[in-house]
Design a protein that fits this description.
23% helix; 637 residues; 13 helices; 10-stranded mixed β-sheet
Length: 637
């Protein structure tokens, strides 16, 4: 249920804003309002969706009639004391904060939480121009803040409001704990001038095409589906047992034996507890059915029925690329039991893991989660999320797992804390996927079995993500002391891959670069998040100076083969300011890069895989490199 814009009756002394006044303020200050929305929106949306959502929120900010405006000044020429601008700004800020709220099954979603219908740009990805190292570092720091803290930082820097006015604006926007938001925003350096850079300007955009092959395939599939619907509609309109007035209540295909068997709990597939020991496969298909409610046919029937036909009150989520339809045949039962305050059923159909959960005291508020796991190996089929409660997560582990432990990736020398295993269920551990605010820790789940130890982490989906290190041709599990030290500076960057259906993330230090002015050597690391569906990989090139606790994102790309098994090459650059105050363009490629050159704002070249060129702050350049086999590699972007 969406809230209605019913304007309160203004008091005689309140400033009153009508539609024309609000529209004039919106049109005059449109670029600033869109920039404000873009900065406050959650980074997990991705740059393309944040751009479109920011424009949509500003365009929907007009009132429906005359309404009272907040008495909060705008601290810039042309806007000072304008109640129209203050009103529109407050509505934009409120909806941007609402867009970052998680969907829950306890309340109807707000309008800002729903997908943006307009504006839309078909066939193109739009995103602001990339900034320099300072802008990238600020973007990373802002992405670690909660939405209210980001709003506080942006109001201070972009709107130049004093803290007293920031408090009033945040309170008017619905922020409950304004003091906590201001305190959290204090943790980010006050580099407010960077907020006006092109990095955060959703009105000055670059355009790239979407996946052309996938668009062609989708167009063909849509035509085939339309033809099938037309044929089925003609058949169902014929006399007989169709959907004609005298026909059956459902089409004949819904009563076929396979569909009926898929919804019968008596036909669920169950395997013996020791089947995995002799099976040629070690994946989810050889997990036994565990839990205290595996014989509760009523619960299992509800889980199967909701999977096939989720009602309007069921909260349904699916990772990208995961089909949400019901099972084609009887699925495999992995778990049915009580976990904390819920009854949970976990099923597997060869393609997907499906989790059904309902409260112990009824079925209101049931949830259905689906995740694609086709092609899982022993390394990726080690655990499934059972339940998330109060920021903690419990896992159901594979039958071959003999030990589980919790480890903080940011503290590689602190050791692991053992977790209890009861019938494969772990004791709860804090989930980094539920954390908001500054990244001060990143918990990982360490699993041990007869073949070794593996490191995984929760990115908010049903299956934890496998963490590896090393060259893309031969990555290995990040469990040794050296691998853990390699991951520590880059663990917080995992937040950029949340909600993308990630299968594994590999961290690869592709080179080291001596810094100018005798400043030591910097490390260049590429982190690549591969997905279960194959496409949509997220690639980050990160730059870490000597003594730096965290790596700074120098370049990022989506749907790129860089740093992957198919194309294990990468080239990236960053603007760096030396301790002496000089600015340099630093560029680095992997070991097979034989030369690097720049064009555009900086003209320079170097033999080998490293380039250093003295420049000025804000300079821009295009990178290109040559590989040993004669191929050309472009700079990651």
């Amino acid at each position: 249920m969406q809230s209605q814009d019913v304007a309160p009756r203004p008091a005689p002394t309140d400033p009153v804003v009508d539609v024309e006044q609000a529209e004039a303020a919106l049109v005059e200050h449109y670029p600033r309002l869109v920039r404000l929305a873009y900065l406050v929106l959650p980074p997990r949306l991705g740059r393309n969706r944040r751009v479109l959502t920011a424009h949509a929120l500003v365009q929907r900010a007009l009132p429906r009639g005359r309404t009272s405006a907040p008495v909060i000044p705008a601290q810039s020429s042309g806007r000072d004391g304008d109640p129209g601008y203050a009103f529109v700004r407050l509505r934009v800020l409120r909806t941007a904060l609402e867009a970052g709220l998680p969907l829950t099954f306890r309340a109807w979603p707000k309008r800002a939480q729903l997908p943006v219908p307009l504006p839309q740009v078909w066939g193109l990805r739009l995103f602001p121009r990339s900034g320099g190292a300072d802008e990238l570092a600020l973007d990373q720091r802002l992405s670690a803040l909660s939405a209210p803290a980001r709003a506080a930082y942006v109001l201070r820097g972009l709107e130049k409001l004093p803290d007293g006015d920031v408090r009033e604006v945040l309170t008017g926007a619905g922020v409950e704990d304004v003091d906590a938001a201001l305190c959290e925003a204090d943790g980010v350096p006050a580099r407010y001038a960077l907020l006006d850079s092109p990095e955060f300007d959703p009105c000055s955009l670059q355009a790239r095409p979407t996946d052309l092959m996938r668009r062609r395939q989708h167009a063909k599939a849509a035509l085939a589906a339309a033809a099938a619907v037309a044929v089925c509609g003609a058949l169902l309109g014929l006399p007989g047992d169709g959907w004609a007035p005298d026909g059956a209540a459902a089409p004949p295909y819904a009563r076929n034996p396979a569909a009926q068997a898929a919804l019968d709990p008596a036909h669920l597939t169950r395997v013996a507890p020791a089947a995995w020991r002799t099976s040629a496969r070690t994946d989810f298909s050889v997990w036994p059915a565990r839990g205290t409610l595996t014989d509760d046919k009523a619960l299992l029937r509800r889980a199967l029925a909701v999977w096939a036909r989720p009602g309007e009150t069921v909260q349904v989520s699916a990772t990208p690329g995961t089909p949400s339809g019901g099972p084609a045949g009887p699925p495999h039962l992995l778990y049915a039991g009580e976990v904390d305050a819920a009854r949970v059923v976990i099923l597997y159909d060869g393609l997907r893991i499906v989790r059904y959960a309902e409260p112990k005291d009824g079925t209101a508020g049931a949830a259905l989660d689906l995740a694609r796991v086709d092609g899982a190996t022993r390394a990726e089929a080690g655990a499934v999320v059972l339940q998330r409660t109060d920021g903690n997560v419990r896992y159901l582990t594979a039958p071959w797992v003999t030990g589980a432990a919790e480890r903080d990736l940011l503290k590689p020398g602190s050791g692991a804390m053992d977790l209890t295993l009861a019938d494969g269920v772990t004791s709860p551990l804090a989930s980094p996927a539920a954390r908001s605010g500054a990244c001060t820790s990143w918990n990982a789940l360490q699993l041990t079995d007869g073949s070794g130890t593996r490191m995984t982490t929760d990115l908010g989906e049903l299956v934890p993500v496998r963490l590896t290190t090393g060259h893309p041709d031969s990555p290995h599990d990040a469990t040794g002391a050296e691998e853990l030290r390699a991951w520590a500076p880059y663990a917080c960057s995992l937040s950029a891959a949340r909600g993308n259906g990630v299968r594994s993330v590999n961290a690869w230090q592709f080179t080291e670069q001596p810094l100018p002015d005798a400043s030591g050597s910097a490390a260049w690391v590429c982190t690549r998040a591969d997905t279960w569906r194959g496409d949509g990989a997220r690639v980050l090139a990160q730059f870490r100076t000597p003594g730096g606790r965290y790596g700074a994102v120098a370049a990022k790309a989506g749907d790129s083969p860089a740093c992957g098994a198919r194309d294990p090459h990468v080239l990236a650059g960053v603007l760096w300011k030396s301790p002496e105050g000089s600015w340099y363009l630093l560029a680095a490629g992997d070991r097979e890069t034989v030369s690097v050159r720049t064009t555009g704002g900086i003209e320079a070249s170097a033999q080998g895989n490293l380039l250093v060129a003295k420049t000025e702050q804000g300079a821009r350049a295009e990178l290109a490199g040559s590989l040993e086999d004669g191929r050309t590699v472009g700079g990651l972007r």
